[in-house]
Amino acid sequence: MQTRRFIGWATVAMLAVWAIALAACSGSSSDKAGGAEEQEPVVLTFASFTGDIQPQLQMFAEEVARRSDGSLRIEFKPEWRGGDPDAERGTIEDVKAGKVDMAWVGARVFDRLGVRSFQALLAPLLVDSYELEARVFESGIPTSMLEGVEEIEVAGIGVLPGPMRRLLGISHPFLEPSDFDGQVIGGAENELSVQTFQALGARLEALPAGGSLEGLDATEQHLGAIWGNRYNENAKYVGANVNLWPRPLVIFVGKDVFESLTTDQQAVLREAATAAVPEALAAARAEDEESALQLCRRGMVFAVASGSELAELRRTLEPVYAELTTDQETKSNIEAITSLKTEIAASADAPVCTSTEPPATASAIPDGNYETTVTKADLGKLTKADWLRAGIREEDAPAGVYTMIFDAGEWTLVGPNGDGEEGGYTVFRDQIEIHIGSEYTITARWSLEGDTLTFTDIRVPGGDATVETVVWTSHPWAKTA
Questions:
Q1: Which of 9, 219, 353, 409 has the fewest CB atoms found within 10 Å of its own CB?
Q2: Of the candidates 283, 309, 344, which is a domain's last residue?
Q3: Nearest Cα to 404, choosing from 348, 357, 472?
Q4: In a domain, 276, yes or no
Q5: What number is the average pLDDT over the span 80-101?
Q6: Domain that holds residue 441
Q7: Stated pTM of the model
Q8: Residue 374's beta-bridge partner residues?
């Protein structure tokens, strides 16, 4: 699922700067005699069926570039098989067919292909905290599970920790077995998920990334997807501590591609995946925290299951575990994870809303949609240096109508091509701060006359803005709704 509905310019800027750095790393190399020889990097195309690139994958790509001294580079292909409810399985087939060099999928999909080595990692309600997930990865269990993908003729590279998956209820929370009776749950269609919801009395229906919740009673998602896809508009209840399973990201490459690499390059890929694990886990936890904050502001209810309700859910799921443990490898891994869980005695992670209200000053700008039209002449004021410094391609900020949306402390900017960015905002007197993620803040001066909004003095991290200045200040923004 997507963790953002829009591709933010800030994200584009970060990726562009990262790509420039990679190009600098890989431009040339010096031989031992002191001469310079050109060395073209090996570029591996990497399919991602989500519209954005998860930070876990960005960390992996950065590690690949660093450890290979630029001789290996990852080129992401986002929205691969976008809208396809069976995108993950299709992506695996695309890698096998050589349509793309490598990819990632959730570990959940492999049991549909006869690979059951990841089942212990996905056993319902087993890995239910980030502390436990960290210990499981430290133990090396996921790496040993990776050997199973060899059965389907791809080469496993690594497994990265992902966010917890919870149940989002449309009209009620899902905290005990009776809540599941006769309900339809949208989610990734794999054998273990189907068995889990059947045991609870519900039915799983395949839901593609970003798909509609129409006709569903609930969906299993991570908080970033609930926020990014605005599922809170149709559903209001998250089972805060009913953490079904994590979403591990499995990275793999086509066998022919892998065998075409040198031994050192093969090692770099696998070492990069291992090295990215700690930061990937931190990114998953941070995404949860940020998403929970935003969902609280949108009025989401985080319902907490009692100890007895969780115990009843586990008793209801005993037939699923009985089936899982018929496989000796899965049984051994479940026992190992259970032992770690007992050792650390960590409770299931449960986000809570400390405040459901946006900052009080946010209402200084009336909620609504504001539009402006940026012309080619406006964009023509920018130099190539401006675009490069901003790390934004000109085609990502085209001429046309831009819409800025203010909604109870949340801010969204949509460009003529549908791309844009979103975040939270605060207002103090005539200054506004737009917070995109945890590290990127745009500040500006604002004034409102009637329904017309005007901005001046735009600043971004590192100094004055360029592209943002043109888009924000060339013309006033008129309220349309």
A1: 353
A2: 344
A3: 472
A4: yes
A5: 90
A6: 360-479
A7: 0.73
A8: 400
Residue 300, SS3 per DSSP:
coil
Write the DSSP assignment of 77-137 as a string of letters: ETTTTTT-TTHHHHHHHHHHTTSSSEEEEEGGGGGGGT--TTTTTT-TTTS-SHHHHHHHH
206 Cα distance to chain centroid: 19
Residue 254 half-sphere exposure toward CB, CA atoms < 13 A: 18
Tokens linked to 148? 């199973």
Lowest mean pLDDT segment, chosen from 54-58, 336-340, 424-428, 449-453: 424-428
Tokens encoding 248: 């591990």
Please indicate, yes or no, whether residues 291 and 387 belong to a single structural domain of this protein.
no
Taking only the tens place, the pLDDT of each residue in 272-305 is 999 999 999 999 998 898 889 888 878 899 999 9
10, 203, 11, 208: which is closest to 90 by C-alpha? 208
pLDDT score for 439: 65
Task: Supply the DSSP symbol for 327.
Answer: S
End-to-end CA distance of the chain: 29
Q: Given strand 102-106, what is the order of strands in its sheet?
A: 72-77, 42-47, 102-106, 249-254, 154-160
Are residues 470 and 390 in contact, defined by beta-carbon separation less than 8 angstroms? Answer: no
- Is residue 44 located within the same domain as residue 151? yes
Regarding whether 386 and 336 lie in a shared domain, the answer is: no
Beta strands at 463-464 and 249-254: parallel, antiparallel or unpaired: unpaired
Look at residue 82 in the predicted model and tell me its pLDDT: 78
Tokens at 424, concatenated: 């939270």
Q: Is 149 exposed, middle or buried (0-12, 13-18, 19+ CB in 10 A)?
A: buried
Quote the CA–CA distance of 57 and 76 in Å, as a whole number. Answer: 9
Query: Are residue 301 and residue 260 in the same domain, yes or no?
Result: yes
For residue range 457-477, list pLDDT tens digits in order. 898 876 677 888 899 999 999
Contact in structure between 128 and 243 (CB atoms under 8 Å) = yes
The helix or strand, by DSSP H or E, that contains position 374, with its residue range, turns out to be strand 368-374
> Across the strands, what pairs with 405?
369, 412
